[in-house]
Write a structure and sequence with these properties.
alpha/beta, Dihydrofolate Reductase, subunit A, 2 domains, 3-stranded antiparallel beta sheet, globular
Length: 186
């Protein structure tokens, strides 16, 4: 947890999807480390964030909800609703490329994508992540897939972590490294 909070303190923004908000109700603040809170951002294409969510009551920043919805919804003074393009006409998902452009325009130069699995997989598929930090804990909880399928059938190009670093932190193991796209595996 301390590492997570330290990483949060090193980024301008922190992003999660609506699934994480609905299932975990995160604060997305720095609590177990010294440093500033990153700008909280939620991908919420249909504005499903409940007004009671902790993210809507952040201690020092307005949460930015990124949506494709044209409807308006009152979520309180601690939320800014940012409308961006959808991926395409057939889906009502936020275009990650449009979202990243808007975040850059608003001063976010480093973004921590904290989850969940659907959002992390989308960032990896869109090749918008440049590094990865993974914690392996000696506890098996089962039933949770952290990253979805990244490869299409017959695709030999894989996502490679290079250089790959590792270290122990108590009983946990931390893996981190830069992401290399189009890694051809022979």
């Amino acid at each position: 947890m301390r590492l997570t909070h330290q990483l949060r303190s090193l980024h301008d923004g922190i992003l999660v999807g609506i699934g994480t908000v609905l299932s975990d109700d995160p604060q997305l603040t720095v609590r177990q480390w010294t440093g500033a809170n990153p700008q909280p951002v939620v991908l919420d294409s249909q504005l499903r964030t409940p007004p009671s969510a902790k993210i809507c009551h952040h201690p020092d920043k307005k949460c930015w909800l990124m949506t494709v919805s044209s409807e308006t919804k009152m979520l309180g003074e601690q939320v800014d609703i940012l409308t961006v393009d959808s991926c395409n006409r057939n889906t009502q998902r936020v275009s990650l490329e449009s979202a990243m452009r808007l975040l850059r325009e608003r001063g976010i130069k480093s973004l921590m994508v904290e989850g969940g699995a659907t959002v992390i997989t989308a960032f990896l598929r869109a090749r918008l992540a440049d590094s990865l930090v993974l914690t392996v804990a000696p506890r098996l909880v089962g039933g949770y897939k952290a990253v979805g399928d990244l490869q299409t059938e017959g695709d030999r190009n894989q996502l490679i972590i290079d250089p790959l670093h590792s270290a122990a932190s108590g009983k946990d193991h931390i893996l981190w490294g830069d992401l290399q796209y189009n890694g051809n595996i022979s």
